[in-house]
Amino acid sequence: MHIGLDLDDVLASWQDSFLGFYNRKHNTHFKRKEFSSYKLWEILGCEQAYAYQMVDEFYTSSFFSDIPPIPGSQKAIESLHIQGSRLSVITARPHYIQEESISWVEKHFPERITSVHFVGIYNENTSTAKKNICDKLAVDAFVEDNLDTAKACISQCRRVFLLDTPWNQGATNGIERVKSWEEIIQQLKI
Ligand SMILES: [Mg+2]
Predict the structure, then answer these.
(1) Widest Cα–Cα separation across the chain
(2) Ligand 1 centre and the CA of 127: distance in Å?
(3) Is residue 86 packed enough to be buried (19+ CB in 10 Å), middle (13-18) or exposed (0-12)?
(4) Which of 131, 166, 177, 185 could be stapled to 152 by a disulfide with Cβ–Cβ 3.0 to 4.6 Å?
(5) What is the pLDDT of residues 111-133, one digit of tens each?
(6) 89 CA → ligand 1 middle, Å
(7) How far is the CA of 50 from the centre of ligand 1 (A)?
(8) How many angstroms is it from 29 CA to the middle of ligand 1?
(9) Residue 12 CA neighbour count, 13 Å, CB half
(10) Where does the chain show beta strands of DSSP type E?
(11) Taking the alpha carbons of 2, 156, 188, 185 in that order, is the dihedral positive or negative?
(12) How far apart are the C-alpha atoms of 76 and 180, rounded to whole Å?
């Protein structure tokens, strides 16, 4: 089985790490559970451009280089590897942090990920871009935390798992909403 994996908030604990950075800089106390929207600026109460600027700054900080893996992800990836799955990361992280991203994947999931694909960010529809890569790689299952992307990627020959977060609530129409990596492994019956 070929499994596609989003990187942020699927393998890497992006939101918590970003909020650690943002809260320290602004002396604020935002928490992950408050983020009922994928659009950070709507919750942070700032301009979109400022939110993007903060994300760029975050990428140069130790909060970014020290992002921990999502709980259960390392064990799950190990199980998938042992049972013979091919694993590809498909991420919307910007190209300028490509090297750091690949190093992070190799550090936390050594020799377990076949390839890392970057679809770009901000100026293109990342949902469509991820779907196109899923199709090109003939991915059988895809794990994502963005509801729109999950909807775009589902097809008759592909299961899509949505890791439940405050920002991806809503109807899922065939997408398999899961609470944890353990649940994904159970659903895949590995
Ligand atoms: Mg994500």
Answers:
(1) 47
(2) 11
(3) middle
(4) 131
(5) 999 999 999 655 568 888 999 99
(6) 11
(7) 20
(8) 22
(9) 26
(10) 2-5, 86-91, 115-118, 141-144, 159-163, 176-178
(11) positive
(12) 10
Distance 68 CA to ligand 1 centre (A): 14
Q: How far is the CA of 145 from the centre of ligand 1 (A)?
A: 5
Cβ distance 180 to 72 under 8 Å? yes
Distance between Cα 69 and ligand 1 center (Å): 13
Band of the pLDDT at 189, cuts 50, 70, 90? confident
Tokens 């919750």 belong to 43
Cα separation, 184 vs 175, in Å, equals 12
- How far apart are alpha carbons 53 and 23 in whole angstroms? 15
Q: Which residues contact 68 (CB under 8 A, 6 or more apart)?
A: 12, 13, 17
Mean pLDDT within 162-178: 95
- Model pTM score: 0.95
How many angstroms separate the alpha carbon of residue 148 from the centre of ligand 1? 11
- CATH code for the domain defined by 2-13+69-187: 3.40.50.1000
Cβ partners under 8 Å of residue 51, min gap 6? 39, 40, 41, 44
Q: Give residue limits of the domains in the chain.
A: 2-13+69-187, 14-65
